[in-house]
Design brief:
The structure is a single chain. This protein is of the alpha/beta class. Strands 1, 2, 3, 4, 5, 6, 7 and 8 form an eight-stranded mixed sheet that branches. Helix 9 links the parallel strand 7 and strand 8. The longest helix is centred in the last third of the chain and has 22 residues.
Amino acid sequence: MAGTAFVLGGGGVLGAYEVGMLRALDEAGIRPDLVVGTSVGALNGAVIAADPAEAVSRLTGLWQSDVVRTAFAGSWVSRLSTLARTGTHLHPMSPLRAVLSRTVEVALIEELAVPFQCVAASVERAAAHWFDGGPLVDAVLASCAVPGLLPPVVIGGEHFYDGGLVHSIPIGRAVQLGAERVYVLHVGRVERPLSPPRRFWEVGMVAFEIARRHRFAEDLAMLPPGVEVHVLPTGVTEPLSPLRYRDVSQISACIDRAYQASSSYLRNRAG
């Protein structure tokens, strides 16, 4: 059995909330035997799996640095130029690859200190693909390749997009791998009720959110007996906007809110 699993969901810059949750878990003495992630959760998860003891400090430093602006660098002129040249995306992959290579100094998934898997969406097979071995940076980049923002990642002649398209919070995978206790680190979307869209640009977001939450709810409903699941809170009180994916001004506040809320949750559960 895998014991304790950390499951990290997707959500771009909102992934800072997961750092606060991780800090609360670390202070409670809770460490993973398995890490499963998607999209930004794959990035955070890879850092955790590489060195659980140092993950809080490394991720806090990473998120409070210029990582988002570095990974998604460029003015609107350069972004539109990239779109005009490629026809498919606004940003090149090279800056994010450089950030990942500097952050996680492990070449292969098999070399990580803790078993780790991340998911991406295969274009050719229209299916989820789980990376459990091979080059780590390529696998995480594939899981992070948001359609329209980044190009698909080509691995073995196959094209991969963001894992959130198929598994936004892959709790089912952790259970399938034998997890007995699961801590869900997410970006806060599942905590807030959905409402009908009022603007044209909200329609696609609401539709995607329905699909995202439906899969997560199904996974929770199908948990086998004896599996313990903790969905950690973010402490979010304001609307979340994934569209402002380059805005890092509230990173520290996001980390602190999730830390406070998750610490309170864990204390209450222990009591």
